[in-house]
Amino acid sequence: MTERPAVQRRMPRWSELKPLLRTRRIELDATKRRLDRALTIADLRAIAKRRTPRAPFDYTDGAAEQEVSLRRARALFRRLQFNPSVLRDVSKVDPSTTILGRPSAYPFALAPTGFTRMMQHEGEPAVVRVAERAGIPYALSTMGTTSIEDVAAAAPNADKWFQLYIWTDRAAGKDLVDRAHAAGYTTLVLTVDVPVAGARLRDVRNGMTIPPSLTPKTILDMGLHPAWWINMLTTKPLSFASLSDWPGTVAELINHMFDPSVTFDDLAWMREIWPGSLVVKGIQNVEDARKVVDLGADGLVISNHGGRQLDRAPIPLQLVPKVADAVGDRAEVYVDTGVMTGADIVAAVALGARAVLVGRAYLYGLMAGGERGVQRAVDILGNEVRRTLQLLGVQNPGELNRSHVTLPEVAF
Ligand SMILES: Cc1cc2nc3c(=O)[nH]c(=O)nc-3n(C[C@H](O)[C@H](O)[C@H](O)COP(=O)(O)O)c2cc1C
User: Reduced to 3 states, what is the DSSP secondary structure of residue 76?
Assistant: First the structure.
């Protein structure tokens, strides 16, 4: 056995140690400290879970029945393969695009989500302000907790979309559409995948009501999430901005207000009364995509509502190439459900989507830190989009094509 030479040791000099010392300024702002540590949307979700009572967190995080639709959608994003090209000049990258003819800083928009003020008291105004600063569209939900006009006033220069469910009372729906037009919303998003409410079992188990009821369980929860409860109880009472208040559960409200007899004729009617861009959200097959475009939709969202409606529904991402082929350049194709990273967004665009809608990703940010948390979520996604474009060897979303992504033969 050969003998190893002994390691020669010496005392380090102070002049050598000094440059290695890193003193970090202690961040006194607790929200900033928390958000700075979040590097991914999953990190924001973990913070959101700690800071939010169970019922509103589960309302946001959960999906329908056994939550298979959502799990499969997220799994497909993780399982796809990217195919990069090398030795391309990516020193300058421009992630911007146009959506419905208007500029967007990134190929994603913030999806409509109901009851946003329940998740965190800053609610819709915080989200639309971030959209305005970032230069991406924001869609306000019919089930919003801030009025059409107040959202418009919070961010006059944002590209604002209004999401509509067709109600049994058609005149009331038309009134909302007129108000959205008068307030400068550019786009109407007609959601068509809620003929009846999906079975969100976590909400039933948690006894979720809007506003949250004061029961022994929720009162106990106040000790665990005091900041959330103080904010909730000391800001404007939580109510729907576009619907009259409802004493029961969300599912009961949906089943009472929304009309399960809606058909393509109602879409034709909407096309007549809405002068702006019209997007149909909740498309899940090629035939329906063709039909809504024939009826004048300017865009459609392939979506299963974030897995909150039909469980075991088609995975939206998987439909993108087929729908994009069927629709061609007659309308723009968007996709949502399961997006947790900027790379997911890039993959969807490569497969043929013009843009992606993100829902939970920004809500996790909102619950983690209000407006600053939403900003953090958008920054995380934006940086990931930018970096993924560069690593794929392209300078902008327009250079992406299907060869950049391989979907697995078997999706799950
Ligand atoms: C808490 C929550 C509330 C939602 N409310 C609405 C709504 O009022 N109208 C609507 O069209 N879609 C609604 N959605 C669906 C989103 O617009 C979007 O389709 C979905 O969140 C996309 O999936 P993702 O959350 O995985 O990004 C909601 C989603 C969540 C998570």
Answer: helix
Q: Which residue has the tokens 């899940």?
A: 284
Please give the distance, rounded to the nearest whole angstrom, from the Cα atom of residue 182 to the centre of ligand 1. 25
Residue 7 falls inside a structural domain:
no
Q: Are 397 and 353 in contact (CB under 8 A)?
A: no
The whole-number pLDDT of residue 1 equals 61
Q: Has residue 16 been placed in a domain?
A: no
Report whether residue 359 contacts ligand 1, using a CB cutoff of 6 Å: yes
Our answer on whether the CB atom of 107 is closer than 6 Å to any ligand 1 atom is: no
Nearest Cα to Cα of residue 227 among 120, 114, 333, 113: 120
pLDDT in the model for residue 245: 66
CATH number of the domain at 238, please: 3.20.20.70
**How far is the centre of ligand 1, averaged over its atoms, from the C-alpha of 11 (Å)?**
61
Between CA 309 and CA 250 the distance in angstroms is 13
| Beta bridge partner(s), residue 102 | 99
DSSP SS3 for 227: helix
375 lines ligand 1 (CB under 6 A): no
Q: Is 111 in the pocket of ligand 1 (CB under 6 A)?
A: yes
CB 60 within 8 A of CB 361: no
Cα(276) to centroid(ligand 1), Å: 22
Does ligand 1 come within 6 angstroms of the Cβ of 318? Answer: no
- DSSP bridge pairs for 334: 301, 355
- How does DSSP classify residue 161? E
Report how far Cα 390 is from the mean position of its chain's Cα atoms: 24
In a domain, 378, yes or no: yes
Q: Tell me which of 136 and 246 has the higher pLDDT.
A: 136
Q: Which residue, judged by its Cα, is nearest atom 1 of ligand 1? A: 60
- For the question of residue 305 being annotated catalytic, the response is yes
**For residue 168, pLDDT beyond 90:** no
Q: Does 336 map to a domain?
A: yes
Residue 89 belongs to domain spanning:
32-406
Ligand 1: distance of its center to the CA of 225 in Å? 25
**Residue 283 structure tokens:** 């498309």
Which is the catalytic residue, given 121, 181, 256, 305?
305
pTM score: 0.95
Counted domains in the chain? 1
Cα separation values, 360 from 60, 144, 278, 317, Å: 7, 15, 23, 17
Closest-CA residue, ligand 1 atom 20, reads 306
**C-alpha–C-alpha distance, residues 97 and 104, integer Å:** 5
